[in-house]
User: Which sequence fits this backbone?
């Protein structure tokens, strides 16, 4: 009885919307363009290369993986491009070129392809790679130096209690990741929403819950400037609009999406207020990605015809989803415990840190029995944290710490100022400088010195260091003919290590400057 | 009145303009007329004629085979050539009465007799509708006389004339509303006369301004009838959604519209009710659209029930020069059934043939990817289900959870498949899941009965 079908036979519907996964992903790329273009204009060719390398790596990796495991080529779904671009613009602009390459490979191979490719990955590949890079290449990933000048990120400034320029933050003209422009990210997010690329449930839930949390626990209340600074800095916007909304790793139903957004907002707020890492949003979203399977267990809203209807058609008040309540409670308590532990250990950590350095403190301020902090001096230190102290005079030198030395009777005998100079021949030079109450240098010691052996390393020889001791001067000068007397304010250059000598002098002079400005 | 609508739904391209402009003419079939006995929901009809019998147009040839069943009348005069098993328009097989057309169109005695308004009673209406073999002509094919006899007569608040016609390409209801608004309104008034507490609402999508204008003019003097313009969106004409939009009440799986106080009739059915009651004319012909990009002169014709689909394509000028037909649909592209052959007869509930030179399904299969969990399917589902979860359950064989998330409430509108960027065959999966669950339930029932 079989009759040959003359025409194609299939199940309805016979129309399909002109929308493919490729189109969906291309739309995300378009939405990321404002932030990308801004980043390239601001950070120049190096940033462009980082982006190009990252996308090249993700696409080539996926292509090769498909070839190896004999899967059909999946590049035309554009998801590798989105992953590459997202990862690239969440990198600092000055990262070495191996960072985007390693990150791109990790994102595609480990976070995506190993789990079965698009739609099967359970954490966002770009975020996974970013976290992997943060852990593996901490220094490169958090160095936001641009044009040779290092600057603190707005969040670091915020954590140090400084006021920051919201307008610059809004525009993105502050140290940060390549795609850090808040206005560009907002434009992109709105574009995605208008073109039906995302719904606003997740971004709105993230932003509102985060803002409320920071307002409640951030210590500044509903201070608009403080809240905006927190919103525009530190990846909240990129996270809310582009990372958390990744459909593959976020819940399906709008109800679950709202809870998911709230969890991200609260966790990000917790980490922001009580934590120490400005990169916490990446971790928060990864953690929340892992909660997605549980959030998907929240029963969907009852369909048409069942709302407020009991089994027998009687009116019933809609209950609150239990699973979501439990998850929220767990999130909240875990956060509270985490922050409690942090608060309890914060002071101890500081004390331990001080004990560790106490050896070098005693070395440079021998008269002191104990060391303590002075609030007004510490405030001066935090005010300049992360920035060079009077760069015009002392080069790229940071004041990192200052303690007060006291004798057995509790009388102040002097101060130890910790300084780090970034202009050593081989990198940073960190040292402690002891100054007594008269302003006389009582000694210097290195806490980090990695200069050239036999040349720059000679700075650590007792004889050379002794030249500083006993000098009462506003500024040490370098004597290049080797005729300087110890304690005179003149220091003989280390032969063959002028750079190191100058760096050490800058560091000591910065300490003296800080002493003159804030203590004397 | 402003256009109201439901939450969800999709906006497929309409292509209504293809067939809307041509004048509507009656098409007289040349070949045999074929009447499948199962062309309605419920029990198949039982033949009351035998091979070799001479029949007249409008003569009963098969009577309702149960309470939920419908009569079938011949649409032409001629000779019963055979009663045999044939392929029907849905691709299945069914017993059919085959009538050789004598081209005389002799009417059976009594057909066409005018009935006066004052002679009409509830009983006469029901009997006339039953005798005429009227079924839901919007596609479902539910026997209309059954629909008109709900147990809770006094609870019926709305009688909805469904003129939404939300399927792309199809324009027969639009044309009918423009050409014969009076008949539709008179049919609606007949139904309203059965339900004292009900008001009549003619629901029309806002892409049919001419039909809206015409119906509004006719309804202006009718105290119990209003025209409700609804948004052009698929599936606006779906019973569950239309009832929600018009009456504000929702029905769920297992409920009939009457359970929530509504009766929904397609405008073509109302036209047939008018014919049956006022003119003693049974359901022999209907407005029928032949359209699609493969058709030379897309148009709506008045087609005799039982006419071969291939003849109707010829009635629309045949195929465009050089056009290769990839897909033929009984109905429109959203819920229409793909036909393997055109050599099948049209039935009472069929409203259109759509011939396409492309097959979007075939194209979609080429770019199918894994689900990216974007949730678009859930956003467009007019019943507010979560197709993504249903598909996952169906693929995992977790039918228990499938039922728990109300999977069986799926109305097979196909909006989810239409919108899916990964091109997953969602609706197809749900049809299969439903079939499996129903089969299991049946088996369980049988096992329980055997104990």
Assistant:
């Amino acid at each position: 009885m079989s009759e040959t079908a003359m025409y194609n036979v299939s199940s309805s519907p016979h129309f399909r919307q002109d929308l493919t996964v490729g189109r969906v992903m291309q739309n995300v790329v378009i939405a990321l363009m404002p932030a990308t273009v801004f980043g390239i204009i601001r950070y120049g060719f190096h940033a462009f290369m980082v982006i190009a390398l990252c996308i090249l790596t993700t696409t080539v990796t996926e292509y090769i993986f498909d070839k190896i495991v004999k899967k059909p080529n999946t590049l035309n779904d554009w998801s590798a491009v989105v992953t590459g671009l997202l990862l690239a613009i969440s990198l600092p602009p000055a990262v070495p070129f191996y960072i985007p390459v390693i990150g791109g490979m990790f994102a595609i191979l480990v976070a995506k392809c190993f789990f079965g490719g698009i739609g099967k990955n359970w954490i966002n590949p770009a975020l996974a790679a970013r976290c992997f890079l943060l852990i593996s290449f901490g220094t490169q990933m958090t160095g936001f130096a641009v044009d040779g000048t290092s600057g603190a990120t707005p969040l670091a400034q915020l954590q140090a209690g400084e006021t920051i320029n919201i307008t610059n933050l809004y525009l993105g003209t502050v140290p940060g990741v390549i795609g850090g422009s808040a206005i560009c990210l907002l434009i992109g997010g709105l574009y995605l929403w208008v073109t039906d690329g995302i719904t606003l449930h997740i971004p709105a839930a993230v932003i509102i819950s985060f803002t409320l949390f920071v307002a409640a626990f951030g210590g500044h209340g509903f201070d608009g400037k403080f809240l905006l600074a927190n919103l525009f800095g530190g990846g909240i916007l990129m996270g809310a609009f582009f990372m958390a909304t990744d459909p593959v790793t976020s819940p399906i139903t709008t109800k679950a999406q709202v809870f998911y957004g709230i969890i991200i907002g609260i966790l990000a707020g917790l980490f922001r207020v009580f934590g120490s890492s400005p990169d916490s949003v990446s971790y928060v979203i990864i953690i929340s990605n892992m909660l997605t399977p549980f959030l998907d267990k929240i029963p969907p809203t009852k369909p048409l015809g069942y709302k407020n209807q009991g089994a027998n058609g009687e009116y019933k008040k809609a209950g609150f989803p239990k699973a979501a309540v439990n998850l929220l409670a767990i999130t909240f308590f875990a956060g509270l415990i985490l922050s409690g532990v942090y608060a309890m250990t914060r002071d101890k950590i500081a004390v331990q840190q001080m004990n560790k350095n106490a050896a070098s403190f005693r070395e440079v301020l021998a008269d002191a029995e104990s060391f303590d902090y002075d609030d007004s001096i510490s405030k001066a230190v935090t005010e300049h944290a992360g920035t060079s102290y009077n760069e015009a005079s002392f080069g790229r030198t940071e004041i990192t710490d200052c303690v007060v030395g006291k004798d057995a009777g509790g009388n102040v005998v002097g101060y130890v100022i910790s300084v780090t100079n970034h202009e050593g021949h081989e990198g940073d030079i960190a040292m402690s400088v002891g100054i007594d109450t008269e302003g006389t240098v009582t000694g210097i010691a290195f806490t980090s010195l990695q200069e050239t052996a036999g040349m720059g390393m000679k700075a650590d020889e007792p004889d050379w260091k002794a030249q500083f001791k006993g000098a009462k001067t506003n500024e040490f000068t370098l004597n290049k003919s080797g005729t300087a007397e110890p304690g005179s304010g003149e220091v003989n250059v280390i032969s063959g290590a002028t750079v190191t000598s100058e760096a050490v002098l800058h560091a000591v002079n910065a300490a003296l400057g800080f002493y003159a400005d804030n203590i004397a | 009145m402003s256009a109201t609508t439901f939450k969800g739904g999709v906006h497929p391209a309409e292509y209504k303009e293809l067939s809307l402009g041509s004048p509507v003419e009656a098409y007289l079939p040349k070949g045999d007329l074929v009447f499948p006995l199962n062309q309605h929901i419920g029990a198949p009809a039982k033949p009351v004629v035998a091979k070799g019998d001479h029949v007249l147009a409008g003569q009963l040839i098969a009577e309702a085979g149960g309470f939920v069943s419908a009569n079938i009348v011949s649409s032409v005069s001629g000779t019963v050539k055979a009663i045999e098993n044939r392929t029907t328009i849905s691709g299945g097989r069914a017993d059919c009465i085959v009538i050789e057309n004598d081209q005389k169109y002799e009417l059976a005695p009594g057909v066409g007799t005018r009935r006066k308004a004052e002679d009409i009673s509830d009983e006469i209406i029901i009997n006339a509708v039953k005798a005429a073999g009227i079924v839901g002509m919007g596609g479902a094919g539910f026997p209309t006389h059954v629909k008109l006899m709900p147990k809770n007569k006094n609870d019926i608040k709305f009688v909805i004339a469904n003129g939404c016609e939300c399927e792309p390409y199809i324009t027969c209801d639009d044309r009918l509303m423009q050409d014969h608004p009076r008949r539709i309104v008179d049919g609606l008034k007949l139904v309203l006369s059965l339900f004292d507490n009900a008001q009549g609402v003619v629901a029309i999508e806002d892409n049919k301004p001419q039909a809206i204008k015409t119906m509004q003019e006719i309804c202006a003097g009718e105290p119990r009838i209003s025209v409700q313009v609804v948004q052009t969106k698929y599936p606006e004409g779906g019973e569950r959604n239309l009832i929600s939009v018009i009456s504000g009440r929702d029905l769920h799986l297992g409920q009939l519209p009457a359970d929530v106080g509504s009766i929904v009739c397609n405008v073509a059915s109302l036209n047939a009710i008018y014919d049956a009651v006022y003119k003693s004319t049974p359901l022999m012909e209907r407005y029928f659209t032949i359209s699609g990009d493969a058709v030379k002169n897309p148009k709506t014709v008045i087609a005799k029930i039982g006419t071969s689909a291939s003849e109707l394509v010829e009635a629309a000028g045949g195929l465009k020069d050089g056009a290769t037909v990839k897909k033929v649909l009984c109905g429109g592209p959203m819920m229409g059934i793909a036909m393997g052959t055109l050599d099948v007869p049209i039935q009472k509930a069929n409203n259109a043939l759509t011939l396409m030179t492309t097959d979007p399904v075939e194209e979609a299969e080429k770019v199918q990817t894994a689900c990216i969990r974007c949730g678009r399917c859930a956003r467009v589902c007019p019943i507010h289900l979560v197709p993504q979860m249903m598909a996952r359950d169906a693929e995992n064989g977790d039918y228990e959870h499938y039922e728990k998330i109300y999977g069986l409430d799926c109305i097979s509108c196909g909006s989810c498949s239409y919108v899916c960027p990964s091109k997953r065959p969602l609706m197809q999966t749900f049809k299969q899941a439903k079939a499996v669950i129903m089969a299991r339930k049946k088996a369980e029932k049988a096992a329980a009965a055997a104990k």
In short: The two ends of chain B are 59 Å apart (CA to CA). Residues 426-450 of chain B form the longest helix (25 residues). Chain B has a mean pLDDT of 93.
